[in-house]
């Protein structure tokens, strides 16, 4: 790994955090988030899938969250990423899926994260937390 590629990695991680949280909170549509993801290189897509898989893992999702997320994502329940996230416990390793399943994996992960994160905001956070991503400006306020 060279300096340059690790700096690229950081940039992608930062962008991922922003896009995923905006999409999860409805500031951005899932189509818009998916369009961003589809435009990335293969290596960046794998990095994003690892990163978002980490968010979902940290949100301590249940199998029910996984299935609710799949329903919300519009991805078929029989697709590999859907099957993986609905397992109890969920199976991760989305970055290792074939390249043609990356977009589906992204849709599923973002949707499952949205389900788990919405619950966390209602139960634990209640608008008084210090999570920077729970205080994003609404789309209209952005330049
Ligand atoms: Zn919070």
Question: Would you mind describing this structure in some detail?
Answer:
The model has no long low-confidence stretch (mean pLDDT 89). This protein has helices at residues 3-24, 30-38, 42-58, 63-73, 80-86, 102-125. It is built from 6 helices and no strands. It has one domain (11-122). α2 crosses α6, α4 crosses α6 (102-125) and α5 packs parallel to α6 (102-125). Helix content is 63%, strand content 0%.
Q: Strand count, sense and closure of the main sheet?
A: none
How large is the share of residues in beta strands? under 5%
Cα end-to-end separation: 35 Å
Beta strands, count? 0
Provide the residue-averaged pLDDT.
89
Class from secondary-structure proportions: mainly alpha
List the main descriptive attributes of the protein structure presented here:
143 residues; mainly alpha; 6 helices; 63% helix; binds zinc ion
Blueprint (SSEs and pairs):
Layout: H1 3-24, H2 30-38, H3 42-58, H4 63-73, H5 80-86, H6 102-125
Bound molecules: zinc ion.
Could you give a short description of this structure?
Helix content is about 65%, strand content about 0%.
């Amino acid at each position: 790994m060279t300096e340059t590629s690790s700096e690229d990695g950081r940039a992608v991680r930062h962008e991922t955090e922003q896009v995923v949280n905006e999409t999860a909170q409805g500031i951005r549509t899932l189509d818009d988030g998916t369009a961003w993801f589809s435009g990335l290189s293969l290596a960046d897509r794998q990095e994003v899938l690892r990163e978002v898989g980490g968010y979902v893992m940290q949100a301590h999702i249940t199998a029910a969250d996984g299935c609710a997320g799949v329903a919300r994502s519009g991805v078929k329940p029989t697709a590999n990423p859907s099957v993986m996230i609905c397992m109890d416990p969920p199976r991760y390793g989305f970055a290792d899926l074939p390249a043609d399943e990356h977009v589906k994996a992204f849709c599923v992960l973002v949707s499952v994260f949205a389900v788990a994160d919405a619950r966390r905001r209602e139960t634990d956070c209640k608008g008084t937390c210090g999570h920077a991503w729970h205080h994003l400006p609404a789309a209209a306020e952005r330049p």
